[in-house]
Specification:
Helices cover 31% and strands 34% of the residues. It has helices at 20-28, 34-37, 47-60, 128-142, 158-167, 195-205, and strands spanning 2-3, 8-12, 61-69, 73-76, 87-90, 96-104, 112-119, 148-154, 170-181, 184-194. Helix 4 (128-142) links the parallel strand 7 (112-119) and strand 8 (148-154). The radius of gyration is 19 Å and the shape is globular. 22% of the residues are buried.
């Protein structure tokens, strides 16, 4: 697992009986989130989504992480122990925030992954998307030896597009009026970042 300085934790997916698949299903049934993340029509989803996710995590994920809050520790004395002997215990349970992933392509030798990130609405506009995306891109190039990371984002999701541009993703094209949502056609935007783009950005940050 990875604990980020923004206060969130990226941990491994846990299959049932853990609740991760239920949390993912909740995302796809959230009418604020679903239009931003899926090409499918927005209708109530059920067990099929859970089955699909379990399969693609097992077969396609280079790296799949559940995003959750880090519980705050609090010193509590044990028995009659003095304050100097107090131990820290967690005062709250982790809260589900979303998920992020690097999806593999058919031929690993191309060193090319597709990136995705999804956050629940209560965690929007807090800088979490940028912090997680930056971490995932750095990890992909530095530790997973990727050469290229691609993503797709839907027209109108200006918040996400701005984050991706800050990290270094470049607009590489679009499929015009390829998606019907909320009574209108919208474009599917394709973005990407190469290892050399990332290396150049790192050099300017120093």
């Amino acid at each position: 697992m990875f604990d980020l300085t923004c206060g969130l934790r990226l941990r491994a997916f846990q299959p049932p009986p853990a609740s991760d698949l239920d949390s993912i299903l909740g995302i796809y049934n959230n009418t604020q989130v679903a239009p931003l993340i899926t090409h499918r029509f927005i209708v109530p989803r059920g067990e099929q989504i859970k089955e699909e996710f379990k399969e693609i995590i097992d077969k396609k994920a280079e790296m799949f992480c559940i995003i959750e809050t880090i519980p705050s520790p609090s010193p509590i004395a044990v028995g009659e122990a003095s304050s100097s002997d107090a131990r820290e215990i967690m005062t709250s349970k982790p809260q589900f925030v979303g998920f992020t992933a690097l999806w593999g392509n058919a031929e690993r030798g191309h060193r090319h992954s597709d990136y995705s990130i999804v956050l629940m609405p209560e965690f929007w506009n807090k800088g979490y998307g940028q912090a997680i995306t930056k971490f995932m891109v750095h990890y992909a190039f530095l530790h997973l030896n990727m050469h290229r990371i691609s993503l797709v984002v839907y027209e109108g999701n200006e918040r996400a597009i701005a984050v991706y541009k800050k990290i270094g993703f470049i607009n590489e094209g679009r499929q015009r009026k390829a998606r019907w949502c909320n009574g209108a056609w919208s474009d599917i935007i394709q973005m990407g970042i190469l290892m050399e783009d990332w290396t150049e950005m790192r050099s300017t940050e120093r």
